[in-house]
Specification:
Tetracycline Repressor, domain 2, 2 domains
């Protein structure tokens, strides 16, 4: 068991250092060798943990989204919260995690821009995670409508509105370099309260 723990600990260390390289160099300029050098290991050792730079990048995104999904699951299971309060807390958690991971968001944005310039498409795993988050939000809106807590609204439009708020948070944190997301959290609550019946 300790070998697995040490392996995961080493992976996280590599991810943190690789992120520094991605931020400093930009996704397209990063090489496996540069990541290995930053980590103080050989490329051969790096291959034990990851097969290429894209896998490192994808794993970083998966790790962030997996953590967010675990927090969301905990909120959704809380029987003491109303559907409206669950939606507010879920949006707050997402916004807080985005703020905590602004460095990763910057790299993701640069990567997506790189892909658009090279006529490539985002990784299917990233797309699936995004769709899963949208599905969770839509499901929560449906639950709120069924419970009579939210007004009967078009679920797709509500989902677009909520996901748009998340996209706004990403834009503010990466492009506009805002230091606080307090206004976004306030906006999230305002939106949900306006949808309330």
């Amino acid at each position: 068991m300790s070998i697995v723990v040490e392996h995961e600990k080493r992976r996280r260390e590599i991810l943190g250092k690789a992120l520094d390289v991605f931020i400093g160099e930009g996704f397209e300029n990063v090489t496996f060798q540069k990541i290995a050098e930053r980590c103080g290991i050989t490329r051969t050792t790096l291959y034990i943990y990851f097969k290429n730079k894209k896998e490192i990048f994808t794993y970083s995104i998966k790790q962030l989204l997996g953590e967010v999904e675990r927090h969301i699951a905990g909120i959704r299971k809380n029987k003491d919260l109303s559907c409206v309060d669950k939606l507010i807390q879920v949006l707050w958690i997402i916004i807080e995690r985005l703020e905590e991971n602004r460095r990763l968001l910057t790299v993701i944005l640069n990567y997506l821009l790189y892909l658009s310039k090279s006529d490539s498409k985002p990784n299917d795993r990233v797309r699936r995670r995004t769709l899963r988050l949208r599905h969770i939000l839509a499901t929560m809106v449906i639950e709120g409508i069924r419970a009579g807590e939210l007004a009967p609204i078009t679920v797709r439009a509500a989902d677009d509105l909520l996901y748009g708020l998340i996209e706004s948070a990403i834009f503010r944190l990466t492009v506009l370099e805002h230091n606080s997301v307090a206004e976004l959290k306030e906006a999230a609550e305002l939106i949900i309260r306006r949808l309330q019946r």
